[in-house]
Write a structure and sequence with these properties.
The complex is a heterodimer of chains A (about 500) and B (about 725).
Chain A lengths: L2 H16 L4 H20 L3 H14 L4 H16 L3 H14 L4 H17 L3 H17 L9 H16 L3 H13 L7 H14 L3 H13 L5 H22 L8 E3 L10 E6 L5 E5 L4 E5 L5 E6 L5 E4 L5 E4 L3 E4 L5 E3 L9 E6 L5 E5 L2 E5 L5 E3 L7 E6 L5 E5 L4 E5 L5 E6 L5 E6 L5 E5 L4 E5 L5 E5 L2 E2 L2 E2 L3 E6 L5 E5 L4 E5 L1
Chain B lengths: L33 H4 L3 H11 L7 H18 L4 H21 L2 H14 L12 H14 E9 L4 E4 L2 E2 L5 E5 L1 E8 L6 E7 L6 E5 L5 E7 L5 E4 L2 E5 L12 E8 L2 E8 L6 E7 L4 E3 L11 E6 L6 E4 L2 E3 L9 E4 L2 E9 L3 E9 L4 E5 L5 E8 L3 H15 L6 E4 L1 H11 L3 H9 L8 H11 L4 E7 L7 E8 L8 E6 L6 H8 L5 E3 L3 E4 L8 E5 L4 H4 L7 E5 L2 E2 L3 H10 L1 H5 L4 E8 L2 E8 L2 E3 L11 H13 L7 H14 L3 H10 L10 H15 L4 H13 L13 H12 L1
Helix pairs in contact in B: 2-3, 2-4, 3-4, 4-5, 5-6, 8-10, 15-16, 16-17, 16-18, 17-18, 18-19, 18-20, 19-20
Classes of the chains: A alpha+beta (about 500), B alpha+beta (about 725).
Chain lengths: ~500, ~725
């Protein structure tokens, strides 16, 4: 046996297991593992994919693929409800590869996860910290085109909008628009910038920026829809009044396909115009499209109210809790506080619940901790969630609307609202709509409480008889439920 | 002898012809081959030299050898007159040698031979002894006689064989009978027998008969072909003994009364044609030589900047400015013109010109685009990308590609940069700063160009993409553009298109903000700029624009496209376009005046190469004939420098921008950009930035980038609030 042959097994072992692989060899193996993990994902084998990513991180930690795998793993753990594990992986990425562009992406994910779990403004503000780090640590001189930096700016702006800091939000969006190379985040930045202006009442430049969103070639369809909806709102609620025109040009009763309403009592309309109707006569909750097509119906004999959440989920409030449309999500409040019977419920921007129980407003945070939000001695008949995590209370006894901030503090009051206020709505511009059942009118107040319009009892040729509830959609169309007319009337 | 002068008329406006003293007719010498006769002349010279030395006797053998050579050559061809003269001199000098050595017989023999061949041999008596002169005279008296010829006309040539009469008509000839020939162009020739005698001089009277008119033509160029009625008559030549500067001539001696088409032709020159009317049989001669004009075409180099080096087919040529504009006057043919300027670039054109063509060639020097190489890959991938880049970029309209690939490695090496650094930078960024200024400096030093291209393959082994870095010459911004190209598809097509597009553009403007509201039926006017076309057309906020020029509109973008589509036909002719609009009071039609306004580059445009734009703006700023308003150039320059992070130059350009007061983009944008630059400078400049944003926010209807661009005010306010 030759010397070479005697040593060959050892040499093979060295090549495979003992000797450190050359960088090119490492990259090749890492790439193969990465491709394999992605294939497993495509084939619906998340567990196998996860194992392949973990193996990649363990065996070839100094490769680009390992960095990407860490990001993907953190996403997988996050979606699987293993938040701590996900965060640890992101921490590893930011600590072990501080200069890598993937570290910037990890900082953004840290911020994103914190935003998703923020239970209050303080936590949301804290979530901006990792986002703020990205432009500082990964500047444009060293990293001229870094999508993570744009994402950080946009997400930071969106958090600021939620916190009600529209000036700072405007700058964050503006930096994403003007100081960064165009990326897939540009439409979202333009939309955010438009909303910052919108909040400040600069409707013409807001319209300009929204149109820029529509002019973008590629974006999520939802974003395009939102921009279009907002332009409709601006047209209706700013442009028309500025020209001395009525906000609503006509009224019509919504005709639900294949169904006759019996005694509609409650209505809530999503931003994009989907209508939830609670019909007490039918004992059902109906989901209807903006043009009257019946999308879904559910027997809900004990329904007390209907509402859309901040993130577009429709809920039905019952005496003991809420159930989402399609019943995939159910929330019970009975064990958390001494509830006597739920009248209405709204989910806020921090996934907290505002529950109106007879005369008391309760707040339940995402961990089910409850607290009383309303002052004693009132007669709260309706609540609604506003922008920037505000909640509005309609107090019949005090004849006022109270606006509470995210912390439960009173932000402002709108008084002298009529003798028999029954229902409340707020639009994206912050205008407050108060239904006076006795007068059969809807009064519209601006954010400062000034009366800007009054509708009824005759709306576009329809004489209101027993209006029960109101709602406003993203375009500013006003919906009035009249139980005696057995109609949902829309002013548009 | 006196010449008779005539005035004669030739057909208009023809050559002025006049008679003049008759010059001797040109006789084409039947010269031997130069190598036959010229070779023996030195032998004569040597013999004469020895003759004049102390060893004069030795010259005899040399003279004999010379004569033997002449005799030998004469078997083949007759010797020319020059050789005849040398032969005569040889005999004369040989006779003196014999005389000096006392060989009387030899003297006699030499003189006899001399006078038999040259009876009119003339010599200087002061150079010989009187005794020898007596011997010569005695020999001549015995051997030579004379004939006096009285010819009419007096300038006729009188000859007997090789021997010609002197100016008085005296012929010196060997004794005996001879045939005397009297001849002259335009006359019949007379041959008459006469006898040369010693004791008297017989007078022979000869009158020639006029048979034709004679025209003597002169041309400034030798060997010009002369045609009469398109029949070649011969070529002109300088008369024997004439100076090279003398005009070449040709005599036409058989012209009869009548009209002739004369032409002179020479290759490389334009044909000369004139009519000549011969009314009398007399002598004519052209008072001025025919000046043939060289055949040439003119290539006017329109807009040629100073300092350009011009080459035609590789040869340096100097433009002429005689006609007031730079032009190349070149013989007909095909030319590859190459114009180069060290700073402004290169221009190439293939031009085919005919005689008297005038080709207008607008000169647009294309700046040099220097390919510094393809780095970071195996040889095959490198060569493939290099070839693809060459293929795509060589045909650019705006740039002249010059491959200086050999310089790329040296540039990076001198700047201390390695290829992986560039790759990492291009792929996602890199903490390790890249010294772009140093790279730019080294590129300027090693391969000076306007714009540099450096390509880095995405992988050492398996590259499927490449990152193309582009940066301009100093002192333009150093920050490069990075274009990502795929090796498998279309390759550098987007790059080529980007390089060939101009930063300078105009767009139609309405002076209005128009949006797509779902509440409206058609594009909705939400804002009108004071003084703009929309206001002039009496459009109002809230109007919905249903149609443009009869085309139903579906969106505001559709409206913009329709406006853009009419730029060519409407803007230049100043036309208006009808809009049908819907307002609260009903439908109406308005006429929108077409107006375009400049577009100012934005800070982050995806389809713009800022490096190329920076150089284009530099060129425009130096071009005094540019039609682009200087303020548009400077404002764009400021924007490009701001994007490149050069705050000092940004401020400098902004301070020099002076837009017209009516311009919708102007003060607001200047102040906004100034605010951005000062805010980026930070520190003590923050308050200045705040002031600039504040001023920008106050500009009514201020727009960024274009008259219909985004409003400045809300942006400035957003920036300002944060500073506060």
């Amino acid at each position: 046996m030759s010397l070479l042959r005697r040593f060959a097994p050892w040499a093979l072992g060295c090549a495979l297991f003992l000797c450190p692989a050359l960088p090119a060899q490492q990259d090749g193996a890492a790439e193969r593992l990465f491709v394999d993990a992605q294939r497993q994902e495509r084939e619906g084998k998340p567990e196998e994919a996860r194992q392949a990513y973990e193996l990649l991180v363990e065996r070839y930690p100094d490769t680009l693929q390992a960095e990407t795998a860490l990001l993907l793993l953190s996403d997988a753990y996050w979606q699987g409800g293993e938040g701590d594990r996900a965060r640890k992986l992101l921490d590893k990425l930011t600590q072990d590869y501080p200069d890598s562009p993937n570290a910037a992406a990890a900082w953004v994910k840290q911020g994103q996860f914190q935003i998703e779990t923020a239970a209050n403004p303080e936590e949301l503000e804290a979530a901006r910290t990792p986002l703020r780090r990205v432009p500082v640590l990964f500047g444009p001189v060293e990293y001229p085109t870094l999508e993570a930096r744009v994402e950080a700016r946009v997400r930071s702006g969106e958090a600021l909008l939620l916190l009600g800091q529209s000036d700072l939000a405007a700058l964050a969006f503006l930096e994403a628009i003007e100081d960064e190379s165009p990326s897939s985040w540009l439409p979202r930045a333009l939309y955010g910038f438009a909303h910052s202006l919108f909040r400040g009442g600069d409707w013409a430049p807001a319209a300009e920026s929204l149109q820029e969103v529509l002019n973008q070639e590629a974006m999520e369809e939802g974003l395009r829809q939102n921009a279009s909806t907002d332009l409709g709102f601006i047209h209706r609620h700013w442009l028309r009044p500025a020209l001395g025109q009525d906000r609503w040009a006509r009224a019509r009763a919504i005709s639900v396909s294949g169904l006759t309403l019996k005694r509609p009592l409650h209505v809530d309309v999503s931003r994009d115009g989907r209508i939830l109707i609670h019909d007490g006569g039918l004992g059902e909750v109906l989901l209807v499209s903006s043009d009257g097509e019946l999308l879904e119906r559910a027997a809900q004999p004990r329904a007390k109210d209907v509402a859309w959440s901040y993130d577009g989920v429709g809920f039905v409030a019952t005496e003991s809790g809420v159930v989402s449309i399609g019943a995939s999500e159910r929330q019970s409040f009975t064990g958390s506080a001494a509830l006597q019977g739920i009248v209405s419920a709204q989910r806020g921007a921090f996934n907290e619940w505002f529950v109106l129980d007879k005369k008391v407003l309760w707040g339940f945070d995402r961990h089910q901790a409850s607290r009383t939000l309303s002052a004693a001695g009132g007669d709260i008949v309706d609540i609604t969630a506003g922008d920037a995590s505000e909640v509005l209370l309609l107090d019949r006894k005090k004849e006022e609307v109270t606006v509470l901030g995210a912390g439960g503090e009173t932000v402002r009051r709108i008084s002298s609202i009529g003798r028999r206020p029954k229902a409340l709505a707020v639009d994206v511009g912050g205008n407050v709509y108060i239904l006076d059942q006795a007068q059969k009118t809807v009064e519209v107040r601006d954010r400062a409480g000034n009366k800007i319009a009054s509708i009824g009892p005759n709306v576009g040729g329809i004489e209101l008889r027993d209006p029960e509830d109101i709602s406003v959609d993203g375009q500013g169309r006003l919906y009035i439920v009249d139980s005696r007319l057995a109609q949902v009337i829309v002013l548009e | 002898m006196r010449a008779t002068r005539f005035i004669c008329a030739l057909a208009v406006p023809l050559v002025t012809l006049a008679t003049a003293g008759w010059a001797q007719r040109l006789v084409e010498e039947d010269l031997p081959e130069p190598d036959v006769w010229e070779e023996i002349i030195p032998e004569y010279v040597e013999a004469e030299k020895v003759f004049n030395s102390r060893n004069q006797a030795d010259s005899r053998a040399l003279f004999d050898a010379f004569l033997a050579k002449v005799e030998e050559n004469s078997i083949v061809e007759d010797p020319p007159e020059e050789i005849h003269a040398l032969v005569a001199n040889t005999h004369f000098l040989r006779a003196q040698v014999d005389f000096n050595v006392g060989d009387t017989e030899g003297v006699e023999q030499s003189l006899n031979t001399l006078l038999a061949n040259e009876p009119a041999f003339a010599w200087d008596r002061s150079l010989v002894s009187s005794k020898f002169a007596e011997l010569f005279d005695a020999a001549k008296a015995v051997l030579v006689g004379s004939i006096q010829v009285a010819a009419n006309p007096t300038d006729a040539r009188i000859s007997v064989g090789r021997w010609t009469a002197d100016d008085t008509g005296l012929l010196q000839l060997p004794l005996g009978p001879h045939i005397v020939i009297v001849e002259r162009p335009g006359y019949s020739t007379v041959e008459q027998e006469a006898e040369a005698v010693t004791d008297e001089v017989p007078i022979l009277e000869v009158a020639l008969e006029r048979t034709a008119a004679v025209l003597t033509l002169f041309t400034s160029l030798e060997e010009t072909e002369i045609y009469v009625n398109d029949v070649l008559q011969g070529t002109t030549a300088v008369p024997s003994g004439g100076a090279p500067s003398d005009a070449a001539r040709m005599i036409l001696d058989d012209l009869q009364v009548g009209s002739y088409e004369l032409s002179a032709r020479k290759e490389g020159y334009r044909d000369f044609r004139r009519k000549a009317n011969i009314e009398l049989l007399q002598d004519y001669y052209m008072s001025e030589p025919i000046e043939l004009e060289p055949t040439a075409g003119t290539i006017v180099l329109r807009g040629l900047p100073a300092g350009v080096i011009v080459r035609a087919n590789g040869e340096l040529v100097a433009p002429s400015f005689d006609s007031g504009e730079p032009a190349l006057i070149l013989p007909p043919g095909e030319y590859q013109l190459a114009l180069t300027h060290p700073d402004l670039g290169r221009f190439e054109a293939d031009v085919d010109i005919e005689d008297q063509d005038r080709v207008e060639l607008p000169i647009r020097l294309r700046p040099p685009l220097i390919l510094l190489g393809v780095l970071g890959g195996d040889e095959t991938s490198t060569e493939r990308l290099r070839s693809l880049l060459g293929e795509r970029l060589d045909g650019l309209d705006r740039w002249a590609l010059i491959d200086r690939s050999e310089a790329g490695d040296a540039v990076l090496s001198a700047a201390g940069v390695e290829t992986p650094q560039l790759r990492a930078f291009a792929q996602a960024g890199s903490r390790q700063a890249i010294p772009w200024a140093k790279i730019q400096e080294e590129a300027d030093r090693r391969a000076k160009g306007a714009l540099y291209v450096l390509a880095v393959l995405s992988d050492e082994l398996l590259a499927d993409r490449a990152h193309v870095f582009l940066f301009p010459q100093a002192p333009l911004p150093t920050q490069p553009d990075v274009v990502d190209i795929a090796l498998s598809e279309g390759v550098s097509d987007p790059l080529a298109a980007m390089l060939d597009s101009s930063i300078i553009s105009e767009r139609p403007s309405m002076g209005a903000t128009i949006v797509d509201s779902p509440v409206a039926q058609a594009p909705l006017v939400v804002q009108i700029v004071e003084g703009g076309p929309a206001q002039a057309a009496k459009l109002r906020v809230g109007d919905e624009i249903l149609e443009i020029d009869g085309v139903a509109l579906t969106s505001s973008q559709h409206l913009r496209q329709e406006l853009q589509a009419r730029v060519e036909s409407h803007v230049r002719s100043g036309k208006t376009v009808p809009l049908r609009v819907l307002s609260a009071s009903g439908e109406r039609e308005v006429q929108l005046a077409y107006e375009t306004t400049p577009v100012i580059v934005g800070p982050r445009e995806s389809d713009l190469l800022y490096s190329a734009a920076a150089y284009e703006l530099l060129r425009l700023s130096l071009d005094e004939e540019s039609l682009v308003p200087p303020w548009v150039i400077r404002l764009n320059q400021a924007a490009v420098f701001l994007r490149g992070g050069d705050l000092q130059n940004t401020i400098r350009f902004l301070q020099s921008v002076d837009p017209p007061p009516s311009s919708p983009i102007g003060k607001g944008q200047i102040k906004y950009l100034q605010g951005l630059a000062l805010a980026a400078a930070g520190g003590e400049y923050s308050s200045n930035a705040d002031a600039s944003f504040s001023e920008a926010a106050e500009v009514v209807n201020g727009r960024l980038y274009h008259a219909d661009g985004p409003s400045i005010s809300p942006r400035a306010k957003a920036r300002m609030r944060v500073l506060n």
